Amino acid sequence: MSIVYKCKKCIKEYSSYKSLWRHDVLKHKINIEPSISNVSNDVSNVSHNVSNEIIFKCSICNENFKSRTTKWRHEKLCKNKTNEKERNDKIEKMEKEILNQKKEMDLLRNQLQKALKIHPKTLQKINNQLNNSGTINNVTIIQLGSENLVNALNDKEKRFILDRQAMSINHLVDLVHVSKKYKKFHNVYITNLQSTFAYKFDVKQNKFIAVNKNELLTDIVDSRMYDIQNFYDEIYPELEPRKAAQIKKFIDRMGNEEDELKDIKKEEIKLILYNNRDKILIKEEIEL
Q1: pLDDT class of 236 with cuts at 50, 70, 90
Q2: Higher per-residue confidence, 221 vs 49
Q3: Rounded CA separation 67/57 (Å)
Q4: Which candidate, 102, 101, 123, places its Cα nearest to that of 197?
Q5: CA angle, residues 258, 264, 269, in degrees to nearest 5
Q6: How far apart are CA 158 and CA 152, in angstroms?
Q7: Which end of the chain, N or C, is surrounded by fewer C-beta atoms within 10 Å?
Q8: Are the beta carbons of 55 and 66 closer than 8 angstroms?
């Protein structure tokens, strides 16, 4: 802040002592030699009152003081108060953020519970329907990834799958996880397209368990593509070159994590399992 020089006789203000002196001489006929001996070097926080007294202002709260020492002492306390206020403001802000996060978590939890609509009786119902010491309708369920389809399927079935080329995994999922021929491989179940959960048989727990649907679909794709690769390695010498090249191209694309084809196949498999859920061993619909 620049120094302000005020006339003691009127309300005129000037930016220099010399201008004030000229005003006093011309306007009020007061002849006082101009002097700047009473001007402080602390120009950033100094002003003059009506009597031309030097005023020192606090750089934090702008409170006026008559001496630099008094202002300095005050600023030390004022700064501490300001820091304390800032700390309190930060603490208050953090508390509000924590409260908002808690509210968001509660909201998400309620939305999830509402979406799933899982009731204790429903959970018991699921256990009764899915779990019977790993055997459902007298069929022993084999866990996903342990099917050993190279030995389970015959050559005709393997060739049929490979002949489907880009649709080979779709037909393999339908044959293995849906058809009546391989009931022991009915180890996955999707009950709801909107839910983030699905079910798979777990051999360690000897029962079906709820799992993340997207992760389950990824496991299905990886397991079945492993089988298709094995089918190809076993049969490709007997395949037509053009057809063999198409199958190899499909296998390579599915192995590329950056290719969107894998996500497309996951969506197609999800629909296959959901649309054929009534054909899987679990007969009674599970309402989620």
Answers
A1: confident
A2: 221
A3: 9
A4: 123
A5: 130
A6: 10
A7: N
A8: yes
Helix 261-275 with 241-254: angle, nearest 10 deg: 90
**Span 71-121, pLDDT tens digits:** 777 777 776 666 666 767 777 887 888 888 777 777 766 666 655 555 555
Crossing angle (nearest 10°) for helices 155-163 and 241-254: 80
What contacts 185, CB < 8 A, 6 or more positions away?
142, 147, 152, 176, 177
pTM above 0.70, yes or no: no
The string of pLDDT tens digits covering residues 140-177 is: 889 999 999 999 999 999 999 999 999 999 999 999 99
d(CA 245, CA 251): 10
Query: CA-to-CA distance for 155 and 239, rounded, in angstroms?
Result: 13
Mean per-residue pLDDT, 193-216:
90
Cα–chain-centroid distance for residue 5? Answer: 61
Asked if the model's pLDDT at residue 257 lies above 90, the reply is no
Cβ proximity of 126 and 286 under 8 Å:
yes
